């Protein structure tokens, strides 16, 4: 029965033995299979590994010098999800303001998509009562973007702005004959998301790639109309 011995990562299965020292010797067929991949162990090295396996060094069949060829550098394309996760983003939430969703929503739609400094200027010169509060909230968001995400004041813009309804404040409204009605005052908050120039560059690049992928529009060929009647164009 053939004997087997594992030395390192090389496995030798030998049907014959040397008469003089008793070492295992690979057959000619095994030499033909092993030779292109790994140099054959010498008799002394094999004897040392057989007597003291811990003294044998671990090796691999891929250790020869010809295999040490540097692989070509390939550029890994980052996914859109990865790029979105690594963009600088600031999310700022305001306190509840004493105004309605309808009034605050108009101002939120006005500043959405604009440069941050331009939006602050518009809110400071607006005649709406709650516009001054929105200007203060935008300044707080600008400070958070500078300190937390290293964004500059010139590159920040308002990517999204939306409002949320809060609870109603209840107070008494006195009427005639010593009676009072219950008056409800709404509260609303505004949330803004600030981003930088890297988002604008990514969107411009995606828009250009989408335009290039679009199928070329070809107009209909100008051909003569046969069998035309008086009612045809």
UniProtKB/TrEMBL annotation:
GO terms for cellular component: mitochondrial large ribosomal subunit. PANTHER family: CHLOROPLAST 50S RIBOSOMAL PROTEIN L22-RELATED, LARGE RIBOSOMAL SUBUNIT PROTEIN UL22M. GO terms for biological process: translation. The lineage of its organism: Eukaryota, Fungi, Dikarya, Ascomycota, Taphrinomycotina. It comes from Neolecta irregularis (strain DAH-3). One of its GO terms (molecular function) is structural constituent of ribosome. Keywords: Ribonucleoprotein, Ribosomal protein. This is 54S ribosomal protein L22, mitochondrial. Belongs to the universal ribosomal protein uL22 family. Transmembrane segments: none annotated. InterPro entries: Ribosomal_uL22 (IPR001063), Ribosomal_uL22_bac/org-type (IPR047867), Ribosomal_uL22_sf (IPR036394).
């Amino acid at each position: 029965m053939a004997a087997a011995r594992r030395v390192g990562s090389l496995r030798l299965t030998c049907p014959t033995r040397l008469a003089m020292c008793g070492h295992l010797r690979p057959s000619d067929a095994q030499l033909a299979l092993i030779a292109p991949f790994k140099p054959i162990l010498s008799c002394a090295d094999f004897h040392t590994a057989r007597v003291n396996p811990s003294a044998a060094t671990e090796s691999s069949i891929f250790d020869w010098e010809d295999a040490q060829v540097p692989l070509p550098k390939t550029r890994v394309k980052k996914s859109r999800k990865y790029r979105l996760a690594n963009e600088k983003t600031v999310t700022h939430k305001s306190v509840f303001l004493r105004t309605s969703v309808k009034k605050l929503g108009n101002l939120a739609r006005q500043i959405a998509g604009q440069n941050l400094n331009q939006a602050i200027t518009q809110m400071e010169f607006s005649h709406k009562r709650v516009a001054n509060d929105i200007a203060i909230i935008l300044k707080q968001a600008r400070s958070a973007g500078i300190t937390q995400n290293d964004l500059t004041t010139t590159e920040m813009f308002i990517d999204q702005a939306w409002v949320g309804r809060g609870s109603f404040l209840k107070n008494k409204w006195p009427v005639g004959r010593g009676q009072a009605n219950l008056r409800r005052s709404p509260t609303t908050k505004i949330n803004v998301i600030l981003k930088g120039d890297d988002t604008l560059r990514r969107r411009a690049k995606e828009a250009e790639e989408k335009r290039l992928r679009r199928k070329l529009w070809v107009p209909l060929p100008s051909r003569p109309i046969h069998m035309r009647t008086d009612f045809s164009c």
